[in-house]
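COURSE: Structural Biology Practicum
ASSIGNMENT: Worksheet 4, Part C
STUDENT ID: 0417
INSTRUCTIONS: Below are two proteins. For each, the amino acid sequence is given first, followed by its structure token string. Answer the questions at the end about the second protein only.

PROTEIN I
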Amino acid sequence: QLHFVESGGGLVQPGGSLRLSCAPSGFTLEYYAVGWFRQAPGQEREGISCINNSGGKTDYADSVKGRFTISRDNAKNTVYLQMNRLKPEDTAIYYCAALFRGTTESMCVPAIGMDYWGKGTQVTVFS
């Protein structure tokens, strides 16, 4: 089954940084918009960032805007999420997901509409 493998999560103090990576298993990212989502205990899964298939368009949730940066390297078939100035409220399991977009420049959709998912990587921000 097609899915992603996320990596790069861990424990970090407030103000610290982490870089998450997301690589697909069984397909190439070239024609997919890719999003990062997160889910904290007891909360719904939240979309936090998206990048279109070419990397020319990005979008961020207000909660992470100015602190997180999404990027992709289609040659390496990998999407990244650079997370800076982390806060305790960023603690969650982080997932990447892909949505087939063909050659359009369209972006992501809410979680329920994404095609493929990873199993997630835990990010914990603590003092």
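PROTEIN II
(use this one for the questions)
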Amino acid sequence: QVQLAESGGGLVQTGGSLRLSCALFGRIFTNYFMGWFRQAPGKEREFVAAITWNLDTTYYADSVKGRFTISRDNAKNAVYLQMNSLKPEDTAVYYCAARLGVMTPNRATIYSNYDYWGQGTQVTVSS
């Protein structure tokens, strides 16, 4: 059984930064493709960023490219999302997701392709 636990959300002003963390429990972390999604009230869950198991490839939504950075530490079974230059439209619940194995870039952006999800952490950006 795989469990994911996010942390690091909170309230920040426009232009500020936050770092989200996600820990994976229960399996060998290096086998998993990791992603971040977010969901704002009344909207569908949307892709934010993803990273391959061997760290050689990252993917970003156009809306966060250049502002957010995804990384992982396989020794700590953790994946991170560094969020800079935050905007009010970044306000959402952020979810960590995992999938065993590999995915193509197009498949990585679709939330139904992930096997495991965390409970989410709220990020609120005030204007």
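ANSWER KEY EXCERPT:
Q1: The first strand starts at residue 3 and ends at 7.
Q2: The chain is about 5% helix and 50% strand.
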